[in-house]
Design a protein that fits this description.
With 65 residues, this protein is mainly α. The chain is 68% helix and 0% strand.
Length: 65
Amino acid sequence: MQLREPTNDLTGVAEAYLMSGSGYNTALARLRDIAQLTGRTTEAGTVIHQLEVQLKTYRVAMVHA
């Protein structure tokens, strides 16, 4: 087994924890909490905004399909 250097990167971990069957709003609240704890609130805000734009695009596409 190869060990990795410790990092502050939550890639691969955060996705599972954030969604864990809790729903959309709770997942976003958890993301904001983690961002606050890790000092990455700006990045979290950007990601949340991008997700909301994508969801709006999909909703519009489904209505016009």
